[in-house]
Specification:
Elements (H helix, E strand, L loop, with lengths): L8 H13 L5 H15 L5 H11 L1
Helix pairs in contact: 2-3
Amino acid sequence: MKLETEISAVLYEKMKVFIKANPKWTRDSFMSSSLANFLFQNGCEDETVKEKFVKDLF
């Protein structure tokens, strides 16, 4: 699945800085983790989202 969205320049730059400093992360893994984090913290009870959230904590 492909997702396209616009984000502020500040968020985009901070994401690039984070990814450059953490080579195990890619833009896709960063966005996936961010979305799972948002969904979980806002009440999503889907098991896949929960697993992604917990996995990315460690």
